[in-house]
Amino acid sequence: MFERFTKDARAVVTGAVEHCERAGGERVDEAHLLLALLDREGSRAAFALASLGLTERRDAVERDLAEARRRGGLSRADADALAGLGIDLTEIVFRVEKTHGEGALAPGRKGGVRRSGRRPFSRGAKDLLTQSLRTAVAHGDRHIGDEHMLLALTARPGVPAEVLADHGVTHAAVERLLWGGGEAKAG
C-alpha cells in the first residue's frame, strides 16, 4: 500500500516514526500520525489545518495528547463511561503515578532498549492507514495524500479525533474545506 502514498503522505508516516522514537514509544500510534501531520507545510492537510486554525494551537494539541497518554490513552468519553460506573479515572491516575511515577499509565512505553531499529505500527495506526486508502478511493483519487490521512483521522473514534474536534477540526469541516461546500478548494 505504501507505493500508493504521495510524497506528503510518506513524509507523515516517516515523521510519525520519528515522533514515536523521540517519545520513547514502542509503537507508532494515531497520535504520532497527528503530530506528523502538524509538522507538514505546503500540503493539502497543512492547508486544511492552517485554515481551521490548528497550526496556531499546536502547543495546546500536544498538551491534550500528552494528558490523554497520561490517562492510559483513554479518551474523555472513556473517562465519562467509567465515571458512570463510579470509577474516578483522575483518582486512579493520581494513585498509580504516586506509586510508579508520572506517565506510568502511558501506553507503549517499556523503558527498555529496542533491539530492532524499526518501530511497529499499532493496530489503530494500521487501521487509520487503511481508512486513508478507503477515503482516497471514495474521493476518486488513485493515491493516498496527507489530506486523506487527516480526513480518516477525524472520522475515527479515539483521542486524536477528540482532540482535533476540541480545536474545531472535524470530519465535516475538513471535508467541506477540501472538497466542497462553496469554499475555496486546496490545490
Automatic annotation (TrEMBL):
Tree of life domain: Bacteria
GO molecular function: peptidase activity
Keyword entries, A-Z: Hydrolase, Protease, Repeat
Matching PROSITE patterns: CLP_R
Example of a GO biological process term: proteolysis
Location of the Clp R domain: 2-187
Keyword Protease applies: yes
Record flagged with keyword Protease: yes
SUPFAM superfamilies, per database record: Double Clp-N motif (SSF81923)
InterPro entries for the chain: Clp_N_dom_sf, Clp_R_N
Record-given protein name: Clp protease N-terminal domain-containing protein
Organism for this UniProt entry: Streptomyces yaanensis
